[in-house]
Specification:
homodimer; alpha+beta; 18% strand; Arc Repressor Mutant, subunit A; disordered C terminus; Enolase-like, domain 1; Beta-Lactamase; DNA-binding; six-stranded antiparallel beta sheet
Chain lengths: 356, 356
Amino acid sequence: MELSDRKRAILQAIIEDYISTAEPVGSRNIAKNHDLGLSAATIRNEMADLEEMGYLDKPHTSAGRIPSEMGYRFYVDSLMHRYSLTMDEISSLQRSMDRKYNQLENVISEISDIISKVTNYPAIVELPAAQKSRLRNVRMMLIEKGSVLIVVVTDAGVVRNRHINVSDNIDYEVIDSISEFLSTQLTGLAADDFTAARLMLIYEAMAQYGEFLKVVIEFVLECLGNSENRVYIGGASNILNNPEFENIDRAREFLSFIDRRENVSNMLRLSGEGVDESISIKIGSETGVEAMRDTSLVVASYSVGDKLHGKIGIIGPKRMDYARVVSSLELINGKLSEILGRMLYGEDRKDDKNGF
Amino acid sequence: MELSDRKRAILQAIIEDYISTAEPVGSRNIAKNHDLGLSAATIRNEMADLEEMGYLDKPHTSAGRIPSEMGYRFYVDSLMHRYSLTMDEISSLQRSMDRKYNQLENVISEISDIISKVTNYPAIVELPAAQKSRLRNVRMMLIEKGSVLIVVVTDAGVVRNRHINVSDNIDYEVIDSISEFLSTQLTGLAADDFTAARLMLIYEAMAQYGEFLKVVIEFVLECLGNSENRVYIGGASNILNNPEFENIDRAREFLSFIDRRENVSNMLRLSGEGVDESISIKIGSETGVEAMRDTSLVVASYSVGDKLHGKIGIIGPKRMDYARVVSSLELINGKLSEILGRMLYGEDRKDDKNGF
DNA sequence: GTTAGCACTCATTCTCTCCGAGTGCTAACA
DNA sequence: TGTTAGCACTCGGAGAGAATGAGTGCTAAC
């Protein structure tokens, strides 16, 4: 059954009032504050209908109405109009992100701070990770006698290294030749390509360094494996600014859920399923998580290059300003892709100052 | 003025009762539950004295007494007896830390989880960092045409890398020779040794690669600079389990303080001043932080090798089980040094499986 | 179809009282 | 002189009503 225009207008008015006040909204208030040209009594009738249809709930008989999850869903899908950030907001956001970052971890934690500051909600930022990557290069270097550093670079631009000890009589040349050998043998391979047969060939070719090769290859495989998307949470305490979390037990339940990163990253994984647009909104129980029953999750997906993907998002009360959150996330998301691209794949060729 | 043995015993009884119940303790309870051989009235008199001397506070006339900060301080310094973890506790702790860690960030976040699980308080873990380090090695490698990776290793065992783009006509040999050159020129230097004169020499020797060298050297300096001690916080929501944080405003104040890493790391810095023992306890206002007025900070310092230092600790209500916290932290602290040592400086030579 | 009016509901707030844990003081006791 | 019993007093907290008022649903009139 379709909603009449009048019902839509009333539903929208109720949801928006509720979003801004967090109080159940009554017919009288709608009649007074919104120019619908209707009396409270009429609105009352419509509200009764909307409740019957499942768009509204009533906390108790003598309170006003609040949106149901179905109501929010309808609002988000059909009623919400895009919110445009003001030029001021945009430029201040841009400015706050326009600084030099030197480490990945720093970017991620700063961005999560920015998101939570802008939205006033707890923010989530996932480290970029690749589903399936190929080896771009593996190198070993002798740091000093007995101490070797393995450096692995994947085609996603991710660099990792590990330090191992070897016996003292291994010198620069040996390391270099192994390094050279492995590099030519393995470059371009994905984890799946490390077949027993191929490994056998490698071990045979350099039989005397078997143990050492094994360690290196193990590490390479580890780097090529599905890297978990590590996740940062910023401004978790922001949730306490919302009246729905005045209750200390609710607050504790939510915060201890959020405290465990794996909870959040599992939830993010679920939330991405079957979503093709770049922004996904999960309302209350749609998140599939009990501790999130009073909150919504808004997530944007970013890409760096064509291999690395990650997500940023916020968690807020179901009663949140979705429109504003969505536009803020979109803006930050774009900027983040840029920053990470520069960082992981080097400066843009065009204004390249490192060439010579 | 010295405290009589009887006063000490009473003070201790009061503090320990308060620690376990979180309720102001009255004279009757002390008389009943502790075998001091004194009547409530006598204890009442002693309590009045202790209050006058500043060791106890009274929330209001008709409540029992609670320890003042001075009381806690005296308890921690003179009354507290060491708590020994049971064998069970120890072995379960050992077990939970005995797994293979592959990335520094993982160790840190797992350890903070373990601390907060064991103590039931919010945990703090600082990444190990060096005050002043020397360059152990710098290398460049051509990942593919136009793309160079710089790898820097400091004598603290820290490895960092950066990716930069260069023009396409730079080949393997060029990179190798620059790498070789810089490595011999810079190895062993600290940030202070990068004098203008020395840099001039380097630039002159390889004038045609000036821009490139500049980028590399900037990066090296960045790696040698005082690395901030980045800090992780685990189980922040645990603080809500304590009755002193039933009040949502207190909880919010505390949690939003904790939410900002720089707050915590500043506080840690302060807390280390002038402390030579390995465990430092700051009670309430001793932390120097308004938001911590109801909480205490217990911190242990660890070292990896002789260059890297960091801290682990917990934040709990002033009314916390200091003895138990201290022994847990000591145990975890030792284990953490071990884990990090293995990780950053390679496996122990003795059971070295990588030699050949 | 819309609206005014009215009886009814119910969470919230307040006021008041009662209760009990705990104190401080005094007087008696060893 | 130190210890203890006894008693009056304090004061926060819990509980019971009562008052308040925002909001509803229904009915009857426009």
